[in-house]
Amino acid sequence: MFRFIVRRLLQMVLTFFGATFLVYALMFAAQSDPIQALVGERPITDSQRAALTERYHLNDSFLQQYWYYVKGLLTGDLGTSLTGRRISDMLADAWPVTLRLSLMAIIFAATIAIVAGVVSGIRRGSIFDNATLFVTLIVLAMPIVVLAPLAQLIFGIKLGWFPPTAGRDATLYQLLLPAAVLASLVVATELRVTRASVAENMRADYVRTARAKALTRSRVIGVHVLRNSLIPVVTLIGVDIGGLMSGAIVTEKVFNIPGVGFNLFRGIRTEDGPLVVGFVSFLVIVFLVVNLLVDLLYAVLDPRIRYE
Amino acid sequence: MRGNGPWKMAAGAAAIALLAAGCSSGSSNDDQTVPNTISIGIAEPESLVPTNTTESNGSQVLSSLFYPLVNFDEKSTPYLVAAESITHDKANKVWTIKLRPGFTFSNGEPVTSDNYINAWNYGAYGPNGQLASFYFSKIEGYAAMQAVDPDGTGPKKAEPPKATKLTGLKKINDTTFQVTLTSGFAGWESLMGYDCFYPLPKAAFASEGVLTKDFGEAPIGNGPFKMKGKWQHDSQIQVEKVADFKGTVPKVDGITWKIYQDQGAEYADLVAGNVDVQTKIPIESLASASGDLGDRLQKSPSSSFSFVGFPIYEKEFANRDVRRALSMAINREDMTDQIFLGSETPAKSFVSPVVEGYKPNTCGENCEYNPIKAKQLYTAAGGPKDIKISYNVDGGHKAWVDAMCNQIKGSLGINCTGVGEPKFADLLKKVEKKESVGLIRLGWVMDYPLMEDYLGPLYTTDGSSNYYGYSNPAFDDLVRQGDDAPTTAQAEKLWGQAETILAQDMPVIPLRFGQNVFGHSEKVTNVNMDLFQKVDIYKIELAE
Fold it and tell me: Beta-carbon neighbour count of residue B28 at 10 Å?
């Protein structure tokens, strides 16, 4: 177990530098004129351009710029955004609300997916199964750019059940609606995977054995089937957590949540290389850690799995 | 029951996470509890250092924290605010500014001439990279403060400039100082109404000419409000009333500038009553806005001017009649009604109606929709069979560019395509390299309310935004004469003459003048917007 974790951590270091290098290279290639992007459509004087170019090392070669970045990173400095703010401050501002939002969304999604997935897995072909199939199809087909403003219009403005926007210091209540919208992104797939997995395990030999031993139905399903069926679902949820934390661009925009997704979007739009790379580096770490946790969780679900 | 332990742990961890999430949000919305405060929606400002603020969001916040030398009435004529008098010599070259006595910054420091001189020097000094620094370029000594990179974009670094102070600024006494310009300029008083001419307190400077690192996070100004806490980036900026303010006292006790990333979200909050003023209703909400807001949806003139420029360096557009014909082929009214739903108005002059000296319809028949005459002219002049209109796709221009193309196709029977470039900067680069881009989508918002601020940058030979290469010495000469004229009335007369030259030459096709389309909640009343897209914070008040 210990050796496994150490090995994974070492792999993480490699992955981390590989990923940041790639992102840095991509941002560098996509950059056309960040200084013009900074001032908008206004003309910029030569001396201003010179001063800003100097300040952000925009004149240096790619490897030199990457070296500045890594040097900063190793001393715990994520650098400065082209707007002059420290990226570590921006992360500290943006991270908590995104974390809360994505945790809430994943709890929503996982609860619905597992409960409904188990039920339809047990009663394949029933009305409930067909109904969930239909509903998840609709949710899968509905892009979030439609779903989010629609939910805001109906539940936020017309019915007035929820506040239409959230903001950085949002309460749990304010985050309910955006979290539900965000959950709809992942709930359908998670539900399908749960259903398939449960349905398959219901036919397994050990379930028949358990039944033959006259165990109660709730014990057969609740312990024997569920536990074995959850392994693929947990993997999926782990990936989803990473995805939701980085990918809530549309939801954060519609509900005015200044989180990670919004900052990434802004960074890309304004060609703010340091901002994008800073946030992505952090996301890479989150992704790696979550995946490590998921791998460790397998052992909890299936004691046969051993880490060497 | 092996494995139950970890499950309990997981459940416990989730519960703690949620609890923590809930707890950390206890402090929000305290602005609701303070009576007589309002909230106004903005986007995240780029900066709150006056000399580095060139966009309307930062400018709006600064207007509550600072008290300008001059402000503008509805006709955009300047009147004195923090200045007691502003006088000038005959040539409009040496300007003497006398400050009203007794004013202090919100930290208690008295406002003196030095505060202005230091702030302006900071803004003008090239290596500080302040975005508004070009406003100081009319003052003597500006050029010597700019670094010149010896090899352009090459690896050599620019030597820091020797001069760190504007030689044109001279302190007479604590409340009087003198500004000497490089050449006469009748509109200097108007120019000084701009944000970058605000004073900065001694507390703003860490040492001479160096701003403290965090000044922009909580600026200290000489205005009616002061910062309550720091700038909460991407979230909000709160300001509260300064006790015993000597100038005009606003009617509200505090303002929360709520920061929105998206106008759609802001509009949802406006309808739900969570924000009191939205200064720009998004175009996709315009159709439903009058139903949602009723008479709380309002319009006011703005200085924005949309047009397309002809790349005059290209042979096919060198003929004046081709340019005239294309302008006549366009139905401006149709475009503003159908696509902008009346939120913009048709433009038939080369300067915005909000500046003094504006005359309607200076463009004359060249801007009247006349497809028959347009076609005759175009055929006679041998205009190109195929034209392009280039625009940047990130600005929501596609709809009207396509409509304009369709009108041109319909009127002239030629082919027209809209070409999208990812960003405005990409478009500019192509124009600079003189690549074939066809007509260029452009826009302008004034920096100071003078005709010259349209005529100079957009149409003079060395104008900063004259991307299309229009050059007419007679026009340049008239604009310069206007700058030197002893009174603004005389200046406007000369500038008016210059504008008639434009109507003959048609270097651009004027298309639309903008309007502020704004809305407010039931909580507030007396909401007015000025020409700079800012809410008048002195007039706004709570509804009874």
Answer: 17
Question: What tens digit of pLDDT does each residue of A154-198 get?
Answer: 888 888 888 888 877 778 888 889 988 888 888 888 998 999 999
Q: How far apart are the C-alpha atoms of A226 and A113, rounded to whole Å? A: 13
Domain holding A225, by residue range, is 94-258
Given a contact cutoff of 8 angstroms between Cβ atoms, the answer to whether A228 and A304 are in contact is no
At A307 the pLDDT is 65
Contact status of B423 with chain A (Cβ, < 8 Å):
yes
**From A103, A149, A171, residue closest to B25, measured CB to CB:** A171
Q: What is the pLDDT of residues A42-94, one digit of tens each?
A: 666 677 777 777 777 777 777 887 887 788 777 777 777 777 788 888 888 88
- Burial bucket for residue A73 (CB in 10 Å: 0-12, 13-18, 19+): middle
The answer to whether the CB of B41 falls within 8 A of the CB of B53 is: no
**Where does the pLDDT of residue A211 fall: very low under 50, low under 70, confident under 90, or very high at 90 and above?**
confident
d(CA B512, CA B342): 11
Supply the pLDDT for residue A42: 63
Residue B26 has pLDDT above 50, yes or no: no
Residue A229 falls within a domain, yes or no?
Answer: yes
The set of long-range contacts for B84-89, using a CB threshold of 8 Å and a minimum separation of 24, is B84/B175, B86/B189, B86/B192, B88/B188, B88/B189
* CA distance to partner chain A, nearest, from residue B410 (Å): 31
DSSP H helical ranges for B362-444: 371-381, 398-412, 424-432
Phi and psi dihedrals of A213, rounded to 5?
-75, 0
Q: Tell which residue, B147, B19, B103, has the closest CA to residue A54.
A: B147
Q: Which two tokens stand for residue A275?
A: 């901002």
Position with higher pLDDT, B271 vs B154: B271
Of B3, B55, B260, the CB nearest to A256: B260
> Taking a contact as any Cβ pair under 8 Å apart, which residues of chain B between 206 and 245 contact chain A?
216, 232-236
Query: How far apart (Å, rounded) are the C-alpha atoms in residues B427 and B435?
Result: 10
Rounded distance, CA B52 to CA B63, Å? 14
Tens of pLDDT, residue by residue over B110-123, are 999 999 999 999 99
Q: Among B222, B230, B231, B233, which Cα is nearest to B261's?
A: B233
Domain holding A251: CATH number?
1.10.3720.10
Cβ atoms of residues B420 and B391 within 8 Å: yes
How far is it, in rounded angstroms, from Cα A302 to Cα A228?
Answer: 7
**Which among A53, A157, A263 is the nearest to B272, CB-wise?**
A157
A109 within 8 A of A236, measured Cβ to Cβ:
no
- ipTM exceeding the 0.90 mark: no
Q: What is the count of structural domains for chain A?
A: 1
Q: Which of A46-60, B71-85, B220-234, B375-389 has the lowest mean pLDDT?
A: A46-60
The verdict on residue A275 lying in a domain is: no
Are A205 and A220 a contacting pair, CB within 8 Å? no
CA neighbor of B484 nearest in space, from B125, B160, B187? B187
Is the residue at A197 inside a domain?
A: yes
Look at B443 and A41 and tell me if their CB atoms are within 8 Å.
Answer: yes
CA distance A172 to chain B (A): 6
DSSP B146-195: S---TTTTSSSPPPPPS--S-TTEEEEETTEEEEEBSS--TTHHHHTTSG
Distance of alpha carbon B140 from alpha carbon B138, whole angstroms: 7
Q: Using a CB–CB cutoff of 8 Å, tell me whether B164 touches chain A.
A: no
Q: Taking the CB of residue B66, how many other CB atoms lie within 10 A of it? A: 23
Task: Kindly list the distances between the CA atom of residue B434 and the CA atoms of B250, B335, B384, B437, in Å, as whole numbers in the listed order.
Answer: 51, 29, 18, 8
**Residue corresponding to tokens 């089937």:** A225
Q: Report yes or no on A130 lying in a domain.
A: yes
